[in-house]
């Protein structure tokens, strides 16, 4: 089939490359001309394992990019909206980018002869597809949904860092559509994947995505709260959760306590659901606590650090921050837990030396006033203490590098270090263990 993908960020680029791999002809649309050029040259605009190989394979043939909506719509049967849905000032969803993309799509659909399908892949609060996207397209196209064009909602569940694998090996595909014809065409795009399609209405599909992310975020905050209690009781929370996770009703995933969740989805999506719930007159107590626990975890790291110094004073201390990405295997720093930690360290007038295998360039845009090193060893040299913020595999192997520190104080926010296994003698503090 012929597919156009609006927005070449994480979801858009991964979907485009994977749809091309599944045998479809794909046109990416982005307003960022630099990304358009990169995609046409087979260069991924973001880092994802396996993405570069797919783009090199399909660029110029089955995968092209443009900023011209008319061209993309007239040369495709289905358009996926994959633009960002950030949080507004109060945490509620900001739909302005979705509205703008829908308006552009509407104007292009006005000029197209045949039937066209618009699929919302962006994460949007329940009601958005039918109450915002559909009328915007009707207004700008002068055409009628269900007759001249179809509308569907197809949420994306990929994990950053494993996005290509997740797209090609989904555990669920949800298609919410306004009519059977649209739902059937959208599911056809995925027919070569080994996964059944769940058909719903658009509102249910939108809600499934929020419930999925909110549940996972709740599991993490729950584990962090239990970890905080365990630490005070001198109980190893990892031992506790390993046993608890064997219960088939619970499962072992997402029970690792630590510095909290970040990324472009969990914090934003939980806040958007809170905002939607409040809009309809419901106060979501549990979801509000999920965010509150998550916001406290990074400060706990700094508290543990302060406890290691006289009067809790870290002014002028050289603190190595290992890990800037919100999780391993990505250069994405959005809502990374290292951001509030670095901000607090700077506020306390510490000297911050940071290292991340991939995300330093991104973090330089947020903090230009800290030092970045090319290696963990470089960041640790002469440090008064270090904080481990991201679960990069290479941090598990650190040992002799701790020997370069002035004081071998290691505050571990991700359960990465087993002090008994090290040759170096370190002063180790686990966040929740
Ligand atoms: P992103 O910010 O990385 O990318 C959005 C892209 O859209 C950018 O390249 C931007 O230039 C482009 N854009 C903005 N306005 C445009 C317009 N009018 N026309 C064409 N292009 C335009 O976003 P993302 O992380 O890929 O997320 C996109 C959506 O998918 C969000 O709703 C997000 O919540 C959801 N989602 C993200 C993930 C993830 O892991 N990142 C996972 C599942 C769902």
List the keywords.
433 residues; alpha/beta; Rossmann fold; eight-stranded mixed sheet; six-stranded parallel sheet; 16 helices; 14 strands; 41% helix; 14% strand; elongated; binds nicotinamide-adenine-dinucleotide
Which runs of at least 5 residues are low in confidence (pLDDT < 50)? Answer: none
* Count of domain modules: 2
What class do helices, strands and sheet pairing give?
alpha/beta
Q: H/E order of the elements?
A: EHEHHEHEHEHEHEHEHHHHEHEHEHEHEE
The CATH architecture of the largest domain can be given as 3-Layer(aba) Sandwich
Could you estimate the helical fraction of the residues in percent? Answer: 40-55%
Number of strands: 14
| Rough outline | elongated
Average pLDDT confidence is 97
Q: How many DSSP helices?
A: 16
CATH topology term of the largest domain: Rossmann fold
Rg for CA atoms: 23 Å
Major sheet: 8 strands, mixed
CATH homologous superfamily (4th level) name of the largest domain: NAD(P)-binding Rossmann-like Domain
Distance between the termini: 52 Å
Give the distinct bound molecules. Answer: nicotinamide-adenine-dinucleotide
What does the model show?
- The chain has helices at 10-21, 33-40, 51-58, 69-74, 96-110, 128-141, 163-168, 180-188, 202-233, 237-244, 266-279, 285-306, 338-347, 360-364, 376-380, 393-396, and strands at 2-6, 25-29, 63-66, 78-81, 116-120, 149-153, 173-177, 197-200, 318-322, 351-355, 371-373, 385-388, 409-412, 427-430.
- The chain is α/β, with parallel strands linked by helices and 433 residues long.
- It has 2 domains: 2-200, 3-Layer(aba) Sandwich (Rossmann fold), CATH 3.40.50; 234-433, Rossmann fold.
- The strands form 2 sheets. The protein has an 8-stranded mixed sheet, with helices on both faces. The chain has a 6-stranded parallel sheet with strand order 11-10-9-12-13-14.
- Helix 5 links the parallel strand 4 (78-81) and strand 5 (116-120).
- The radius of gyration is 23 Å and the shape is elongated.
- The protein binds nicotinamide-adenine-dinucleotide.
- Nicotinamide-adenine-dinucleotide is lined by residues 6-12, 29-32, 35, 82-85, 97, 100-101, 104, 122-123, 156, 158, 160, 264-265.
């Amino acid at each position: 089939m012929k597919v156009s993908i609006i927005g070449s960020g994480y979801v858009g680029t991964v979907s485009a490359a994977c749809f091309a791999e599944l045998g479809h002809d794909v046109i990416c649309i982005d307003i960022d001309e630099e990304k358009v050029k990169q995609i046409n040259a087979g260069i991924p605009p973001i880092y994802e394992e396996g993405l570069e190989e797919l783009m090199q394979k399909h660029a110029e043939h089955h995968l092209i990019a443009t900023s011209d909506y008319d061209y993309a719509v007239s040369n495709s049967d289905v358009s996926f909206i994959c633009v960002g849905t950030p949080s507004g000032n109060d945490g509620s969803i900001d739909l302005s980018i979705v509205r703008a993309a829908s308006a552009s799509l509407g104007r292009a659909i006005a000029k197209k002869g045949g039937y066209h399908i618009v699929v919302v892949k962006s994460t949007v609060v329940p009601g958005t597809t039918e109450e915002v996207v559909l009328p915007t397209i009707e207004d700008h196209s002068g055409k009628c949904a269900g007759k001249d064009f179809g509308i569907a909602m197809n949420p994306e569940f990929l994990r950053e860092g494993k996005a290509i694998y997740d797209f090609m090996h989904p555990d669920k595909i949800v298609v919410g559509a306004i009519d059977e014809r649209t739902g059937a065409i959208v599911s056809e795009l995925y027919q070569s994947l080994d996964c059944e399609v769940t058909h719903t209405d658009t509102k249910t599909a939108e809600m499934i995505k929020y419930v999925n992310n909110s549940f996972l975020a709740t599991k993490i905050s729950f584990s962090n709260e239990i970890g905080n209690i365990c630490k005070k009781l001198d109980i190893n929370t990892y031992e506790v959760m390993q046993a608890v996770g064997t219960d088939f009703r619970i499962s072992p995933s997402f029970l690792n306590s630590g510095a909290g969740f970040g990324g472009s989805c969990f914090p934003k999506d939980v806040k958007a659901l809170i905002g939607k719930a409040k809009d309809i007159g419901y106060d979501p107590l549990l979801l509000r606590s999920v965010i509150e626990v998550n916001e406290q975890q990074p400060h706990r790291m700094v508290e543990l650090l302060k406890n290691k110094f006289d009067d809790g004073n870290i002014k002028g201390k050289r603190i190595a921050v290992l890990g800037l990405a919100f999780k391993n295997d990505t250069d994405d720093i959005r809502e990374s837990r290292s951001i509030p930690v670095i901000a607090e360290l700077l506020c306390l007038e510490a000297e911050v030396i940071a290292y991340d295998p991939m995300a330093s360039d991104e973090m330089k845009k947020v903090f230009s006033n800290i030092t970045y090193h090319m290696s963990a060893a470089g960041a640790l040299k002469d440090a008064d203490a270090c904080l481990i913020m991201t679960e990069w595999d290479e941090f598990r192997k650190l040992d002799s590098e701790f020997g370069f520190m002035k004081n071998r104080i290691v505050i571990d926010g991700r359960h990465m270090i087993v002090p008994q296994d090290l040759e170096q003698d370190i002063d180790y503090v686990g966040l929740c263990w």
